[in-house]
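A brief tutorial aside. Many learners find it easier to grasp structure tokens once they have seen a single protein encoded end to end. The record that follows does exactly this for Dipeptidyl-peptidase. Read the sequence first, then the structure, and try to relate runs of similar tokens to stretches of the chain.
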Amino acid sequence: MRPLATLAALLFAWTVAAPPAPAQAPTFDPDTVRAQPLDGGKMWLFEDPPTEYLAETYGFRPDEAWYRRARLASLRMPGCSASFVSPHGLVLTNHHCAQSSVVAVDEGGEGLLDAGFAATELGQERRVPDLYMDQLVAIEDVTAEMSAPVDAAQTDAEREAAFAEAEAAVTARLLADYGVTAPDEDADDYVVQVVALYDGGRYSAYTFRRYRDVRLVMAPEQALGFFGGDYDNFTYPRYAADFAFFRIYGDDGQPLESPEFFPLSQEGVEAGSVVFVIGNPGSTARGLTVAQLEFLRDVQLATTLDFVDSRAAALQAYLDSGEAPEPDQVRSQIFELSNAQKAFGGRLRGLSDPYIIARRAAAERDFREASPEAAAIIDEQTRLQEEKRDLAAAYRAFPYLYSRTYGSALLQRAQAAAEGNAEAAAVEDRPARLERAYLEAEVDALRGYYQARGEALPTPLQGASAEAVADRLLSTSAAASAAGGVADDDPAVVLVRAVAPDLAAFRSASAGFSAREGDLARRLGRARYVTYGGAVPPDATFSLRFTDGVVTGYPYNGTIAPPLTTLFGMYDRYHSFCTSGRDVARCDWALPENWLEAQGNLDLSTPVNFTSTSDTIGGNSGSPTVNRDGELVGLNFDRTIEGLVRDYLYAPERGRNVMVDTRLVQEALANVYDLDGLLAEIRSGTLRQ
């Protein structure tokens, strides 16, 4: 559900997280499990569209005009996807993709996150600082230009340098076609991104038109955008009005002309409708070998969940204390972390399922038989994972040490001082409650490393508990405050230096593993593309893809989930949870007063959310969902927790993606928010004034 923002960047290298699930005895014979044709997923490339597959599956053969419109009407924004929905630069995406923008345009004390925002005329639309949106205007295969220098490099550092040099040459060549010699961060511009597909088995250069004047037009109250709170997150049936509008303006300060856009469908979808989700899926790991998946499951998982759990608990306690001067920012961080808790936990449940591993193993056997080269590479990768297991304790202790976002300021200052870095004094103080919680968590992780290895704790870490060590550091170290200088013999500096050799050894070893792993993945990706071609799409790369699916419910929890939910259900959730003796102000299904007042004016049979078999993942938030005619029928915003396994395997029988129905968007604009001008624009293309 969440955008790929700060936490995502932090966690992507780790891919999955949660404590190891109890061992399950298979209730089937793993040798009888067979791979399915679409196990590699349906995140199709626009440069290699599966037209014949679509024709055979749905009797639908998109032409070049359909693909072009789908590409140009779609947009990428930081961490999310979006799309043009009028010829005047009007953009529709998810509320949770706009959440930080809502906070950013708040002029102080407005409380827009809770109150919502609606500009009733163009002059009221507020520019969002530093927000940009990208439109993919050209694609070129640059495999020949990129592969030769990268393949010739001998080390990871050399490969990075070779990639950067080749990418710079490709970028300069492509930008010259648009008359661009240097990027201008103050104006609309073109940017080029070279994307390594199939782990570097193939390269595509994407040229984007980057729009920098993006203004918030409308966002409902967070109570609607995140209706049901964390309880409903990664679940279905859902009733969330997770949508928001922006507008892109040109360099002339006028609304952008956007001739390629998706008109909103008036008829919508029904059970059995074919839909196409167009967006920028962030990252998948379907190209990993079984040995790599088992290492993720067995070694790295608990570390990430412990990190997320401890920081979420600390922030919640801080928010509950009433001490936070800007509670909306804290709530935004909690939202990000709570989303991660469910996301990574669901992924682990998939990897802990013997059937999923057996199905991946079956696909790997097929690949080995089809390609002797692949078989040899897979064997090398297996041996490498065995080497990594020797550093299991370090992999659990060190990855999040000294985190800039969620780590102790005291330890960050001590680290800077130990390295002779003048930045020690530049680290701002954290609120005392957060500082103590973060410090205890980091100390506990360090103590756990030495205990797991059966080694004595270094003197600075000795004590009855992590809490006792944290107490001692907070009371004796000058690094506890940004106000004081940190001496060379400061207790926190002594601690940092005590663990530095082990940390350095881990970083060196893991960098070596990463280089070898990347080289093997590149060779294996090339073998995969040679063997299967575009029939197996590459792993997600936060670049534009489209996926097909069918609107359908599914069995769950001993009953059946409907393909669509309605406003009847939304109001039922409110009354069932919030007016039956609970505190309405703290109810996750609470509705704002304007929604309660509007109930009599609404068509309660209006669909709110629907679900399909489309192949989506993080980064697809805000993705336009269109029908065969290119009409917008929905906005992707989530997937069910059972569907989190699709990070590693597309299994449509397990879970669904979840979308906002655009009929709900139109009903809300007309009968809750009285935004008739905005509604007229998305229905007839008439620009409001």
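Self-check: The chain has two domains: 35-132+212-285+539-684, 290-529. If you spotted this yourself, you are ready for the next section.
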